[in-house]
Amino acid sequence: MRFNIDGKELQQQLSAVNKVINSKNALTILDNFLFELDGADLTITGSDQENTVKVKLEVMDSDGSGKIAIPAKTLLEITKEVNNQPVSFSLNEHTGEIDLQFLNGKFRFMGINADEFPRGDNFEEDAQSFSVPASVVIKGIENTVFAVSNENIRPIMTGIYWDIHEEDIVFVASDTHKLVRYVTREVAPRFTRGFIMPSKPANILKGILGKDDMVNIKIGDKGAKFTFGNFSLTCRFIKGNYPNYNRVIPTDNPYTLTVERQSLLNAMRRVAIFASKASNLVKMELQPGMLRLAAQDLDYGTSAEENVICDYQGNEMTIGFNSAFTVEILNNMSGDTILIKLSDPARPGIFEPLEQEPNTELTTIQMPMQVIE
């Protein structure tokens, strides 16, 4: 088989597909891209067994059809060097030898039999489908993926839970120290379903989606397929039942702290420098109209305090939070002003934008830490 293609376009699409390929694979065939030519259509596939990314490109001067697996690292290095040049690709089907020619030279290397490459696009006939703007998916992932757990002790907590309802979609993530619930009513799927999407395909999807794309989502019993533009991403779900997240979110936190998000974020970062490295504990000392952040590291005899301008309505209170988690929450929250709802030092605090975006609702909770006076 033979075809011509723009080198820059090829390099860009290979970089996108390469996001799914692991640096180390149990199956050596997964170290490769799968190239499949059918007339003027070239499909490039990458996989790690659990997740698969495909992109379809239109090529020029194509001749023949077929498929071949090509070492991903080698091909990426080659295309980076001929980035802005047209490339002519030809395969000897009998020997597996590949010639890649550019303006002033050529590369010759060996491909690999493609028959062992996994195929993972099979979906049940009763799979449910719906379409959603890419911006909805991007915002859902961006607002939650930072809160997934990195510990495999509880696998269900290492992904984003999609709780799909007739009139909305709820994205949820938690590492048990913090929990994020993002509700979007910008789409109405017209059915009820739930699945846990691992963080790896979620990050890949967020990275390759175009903001103006329309995404078709097909949901089966074991996985989902996302199709948009000339790409598709298939992922397997994490098995298990996600905990009842609504039960964790307090419904009666009467004390409110209204504060400028960037001011609190900057102050938290400064005070946290002197927090204990073991706990990252920063105390929030609250009085009407006043917030003081305080931290100390007894091992090194250091401490820090900083006052932050705010509006606090409630009883005097001292509550402790892990500063690293608080910084994550504030970093991933939009809006200039945030609202923190509290009840007592032993119960979770609720973090929300003061003004929610239209048709959405973002709620983040953080578990407090014990403060020893």
Gross geometry:
elongated
| Distance from first to last alpha carbon | 75 Å
Question: What percent strand?
Answer: 35-45%
Main sheet specs: 9 strands, antiparallel
Low-confidence stretches: none
Strands, count? 26
> Strand order of the main beta sheet, please?
14-11-12-13-26-25-24-18-22
Coarse structural class: alpha+beta
As a percent range, the share of helical residues equals 10-25%
What's the number of helices? 7
Report mean pLDDT, rounded to a whole number: 94
What is the rounded Rg? 25 Å
Descriptive account of the structure:
This protein has 373 residues and is α+β, with helices and mostly antiparallel strands. The protein has seven helices and 26 strands. It has helices at 7-18, 72-81, 134-142, 199-208, 245-248, 261-272, 323-331; strands at 2-6, 32-38, 41-47, 51-58, 60-63, 66-71, 86-91, 97-102, 105-110, 128-133, 159-164, 169-174, 178-184, 193-198, 214-219, 223-228, 231-236, 255-260, 281-287, 290-297, 302-308, 310-313, 317-322, 337-342, 349-353, 360-366. The protein has a nine-stranded antiparallel beta sheet. An eight-stranded antiparallel beta sheet has the order 6-2-3-4-17-16-15-10. β25 and β26 form a beta hairpin. The longest helix is centred in the first third of the chain and has 12 residues, at 7-18. It starts with a strand and ends in a 7-residue tail after the last strand. The model has no long low-confidence stretch (mean pLDDT 94).
Helices and strands in order:
Elements: E1 2-6, H1 7-18, E2 32-38, E3 41-47, E4 51-58, E5 60-63, E6 66-71, H2 72-81, E7 86-91, E8 97-102, E9 105-110, E10 128-133, H3 134-142, E11 159-164, E12 169-174, E13 178-184, E14 193-198, H4 199-208, E15 214-219, E16 223-228, E17 231-236, H5 245-248, E18 255-260, H6 261-272, E19 281-287, E20 290-297, E21 302-308, E22 310-313, E23 317-322, H7 323-331, E24 337-342, E25 349-353, E26 360-366
Antiparallel strand pairs: 1-5, 1-7, 2-3, 2-6, 3-4, 4-17, 7-8, 8-9, 10-15, 11-12, 11-14, 12-13, 13-26, 15-16, 16-17, 18-22, 18-24, 19-20, 19-23, 20-21, 24-25, 25-26
Helix pairs in contact: 1-2, 3-4, 6-7
